[in-house]
Amino acid sequence: MRRLINWLVVLTLLWTAYWGIAAWALREGVTAWYGERAREGWHAEYDGIETAGYPSRHVTRILNPVLADPGTGTAWSADWITFDSAAVSPTQQGLRFPATPQRFSNFDGTLILEADDMRAGLGFAPGRALALEHIDLHSGPWKISDAAQPLLSGQAFVLRMEESDEPLRYQLHGNIAGLVLSGGTRRVLFSTQSLPEAFEALEFRATATFDTPWDRRALELRRPQPRHLDLEQMLVQWGPMQMRAAGELSMDESGRPTGTITLQAQDWQRMLTLTEETGLLPPALRANVEQVLSLLAGRSGHPERLELRLNFARGRVMLGPLPLGPAPRILLR
Fold first, then answer.
1. How does strand 322-326 pair with strand 66-69?
2. Which of 43, 248, 258, 306 has its CA 20 to 30 A from that of 211?
3. pTM value?
4. Separation of alpha carbons 276 and 286, rounded Å
5. C-alpha 134, offset from chain centre
């Protein structure tokens, strides 16, 4: 029995030494990473690092982190961020974010995110590159505001990105529950009582191919840029309005898309009535617009279902033969 106790004491001391060395290495890694960013011209600072979780986990909290990349004009700050991993498996990391405001800036614009129980789970391939295998981000009730007013809010969201079997290709999935529009958009659309306050459904599934892998260089050097997007399905349900979208787009180096997205609207006549009630469609144009849409809907053989094709080419968006204007550039800053 005494020998067993001695062995347990030795193993405990060895494990405590390992845990302490690993915790020290994590703190030193954070310090070195922030120092490298500062030498590259970033505004990178924090007030302190706390370590907990003994004996089974490493829980590292960074206090008042601030990161600003002058090359892209993007910045982020929060009261704290926590990294949590099992002591024997540092390639599986959990992130926890504060319920207090997080600030995301791009040059002169700043958005404020407040989210309850916002967490992320990240899986990395072994190695210094920290190649991302998957990320799951989810949250309870959340709100996005600018300096003047709330913009968006919701009850929960789930976002997932997972590496596929093909290099540089990732599967994406998102679901936002109880999305509510705020500000000027809300005042316009809620002028009619036909629309509920919150969206019943907003979700998407897609596969994206990027020009470089998602690893530590995505934060340190440049964000991977999408080169191909296969939108398998996007569903939006808001009261009587139901929209579905699917299609494929390819992006060049400047982010200009080429391809086709098909939009499907169910019960589009009622949607047209709602558009008129909100004042977005002048009553004088209702008859002409309805006639054109009726012709388009009749081609599918289902008059109650409207299918439209958005064609992206040469930097423009076309609805059939009708030009809609410049195509948005799809770039990650």
1. unpaired
2. 43
3. 0.85
4. 7
5. 13
CA–CA distance, 182 with 197 (Å, rounded to integer): 10
The pLDDT value recorded for residue 178 is: 93
Please name the residue that has the structure tokens 């029995």. 1
CB atoms within 10 A of CB 322: 9
Average pLDDT over residues 48-67: 94
DSSP-assigned letter for residue 189: H
Tell me the three-class secondary structure of 32-101, residue by residue: HHHHHHHHCCCEEECCEEEEECCCCEEEEEEECCEEEECCCCEEEECCEEEEEEECCEEEEEEEECCCCC
What pLDDT sits at residue 190? 53
The whole-angstrom separation of Cα 305 and Cα 313 is 26
Which whole-number Å values give the CA distances from 57 to 17, 21, 32, 40, 219, in the listed order? 14, 13, 22, 32, 25
* Per-residue tokens: 308: 């439209």
- Between 40 and 321, residue with greater pLDDT: 40
| C-alpha–C-alpha distance, residues 176 and 172, integer Å | 14
* Token pair of 173 as six digits: 């999935």
Give the Cα separation of 142 and 98 in Å (integer).
12
